[in-house]
Amino acid sequence: MIYIKPADKKELLELVAQPSFRKNNGQILAGGSDLLVKMEHFGLKTGMIVDVKSIKSLRGITKKDNVIRIGSLTTLSDILESKILSKNAPNLTQAAKNFAAIQMRNRSTIGGNICNASPAGDLIPPLYALEATLKLESQRGIRTVNIQQFFKGPGKTVLKPDELLSEISFSALPSSTFSRFYKLGQRESMAIAVVSLALNFNSENNRFKDVRIALGSVAPTVIRAKEAEKILEGTDISPEIVEKAAKIAAKECSPISDVRSSADYRRLMVLRLLPELLKIA
Ligand SMILES: Cc1cc2nc3c(=O)[nH]c(=O)nc-3n(C[C@H](O)[C@H](O)[C@H](O)COP(=O)(O)OP(=O)(O)OC[C@H]3O[C@@H](n4cnc5c(N)ncnc54)[C@H](O)[C@@H]3O)c2cc1C
Fold first, then answer.
1. pLDDT for the residue 26
2. Could you give the CA distance from residue 95 to residue 19 in angstroms, rounded to a whole number?
3. Which has fewest Cβ within 10 Å: 25, 91, 178, 196?
């Protein structure tokens, strides 16, 4: 097994561009909390590990001109402690709060959570609701993709073998925005989401405005409940319209039954939980 620890991003991009990286089914190691589990328990074979964890330029949270940028190696603990995020993207902070335990939060990175591409990844629904942009870098250049276009299915993304997810960015939310996250698991903590919901919306003259609803663990990738958003947008806030939107959102899901839950239960939970999260009080 070849183990390499590049000193900086330039060296990293050189390494992953080499034919030997692809030939050895090389893997980028960030916190390792998904990768090492896959190698140990799910038969992932690799002959080359590129450990990126100590590349400082890829870690940190900044806000400039109303745009928030998060380096891909920023940990869940960094996210939880960030005042920039608790003020400008509260549902991302809430998702970090619900994430595993402190040891895991200290190791796990936002980039790893995204690149692992699990429909149950906790940070992904808030990033959908924030309409985040992902910066993908390689020696060939830089491209940006909307987070919704990044995922192709469970564990599958548009990331090329020589590409690195370097940064996640989105606009800061106004302080008046209702920004919420809820994860339903089989227990309170250390649980994989049975269903997760992330919402951002405003209320103007008692009408819904800028509604963004993202749902996790209810389809092959995290989804936006766009039809439900449409029904709510510009409509007077009332229990009836919220119930209607929840029914539509439940129909937008295509869940599977697995060890954690049946598909029917997942739909039912979307139906029950969405109205709770759309409450103004
Ligand atoms: C005990 C335990 C509890 C957990 N609890 C939760 C939980 O509550 N919620 C949750 O969502 N997840 C949970 N997870 C899953 C995991 O911790 C997260 O998905 C975590 O964010 C992964 O980050 P990492 O830095 O450890 O990724 P790694 O394991 O290092 O990497 C994951 C994958 O992404 C690739 N990768 C990583 N960074 C980059 C990058 N910058 N560019 C390109 N590719 C990259 C790697 O090559 C690998 O394929 C848990 C895992 C364990 C073992």
1. 97
2. 38
3. 25
**pLDDT of res. 280:** 83
Complex ipTM value: 0.99
Q: State which of 104, 105, 143 you would mutate to test the pocket of ligand 1, scoring each by most atoms of that ligand within 8 A of its C-beta.
A: 104
* Average pLDDT of span 58-76: 98
Distance (Å) from CA 35 to ligand 1 centroid: 7
Q: Percent of the chain, pLDDT > 70?
A: 100
Q: Measured between alpha carbons, how far is residue 35 from residues 41, 138, 148, 278 in Å?
A: 10, 21, 23, 36
Give residue 235 CA to ligand 1 midpoint distance, Å: 39
**Mean pLDDT, the chain, integer:** 96
pLDDT of 172 > 90? The answer is yes
Atom 28 in ligand 1: residue holding the nearest Cα: 32
Rounded CA separation 129/141 (Å): 28
pLDDT at 189: 75
Q: Which residues lie closer than 8 Å to 96 by C-beta, 6 or more apart?
A: 76, 77, 79, 80, 105, 122, 123
Task: Enter the tokens of residue 265.
Answer: 């239960």
Q: Give the pLDDT of residue 79.
A: 98
Name residues contacting ligand 1 (CB within 6 A).
Answer: 27-35, 37, 72, 99-100, 104, 107-109, 111-113, 115-116, 121-122, 159, 164-165
* Inter-axis angle of helices 239-252 and 263-277, nearest 10: 150
The token pair at 220 is 């092959």
User: Which residue ranges form the domains of the chain, and what is each CATH number?
Assistant: 2-51 (3.30.43), 56-171 (3.30.465.10), 178-277 (3.30.390.50)
Report yes or no: 153 and 119 within 8 Å, Cβ to Cβ: no
Ligand 1 atom at minimum distance from 34 CA: 29
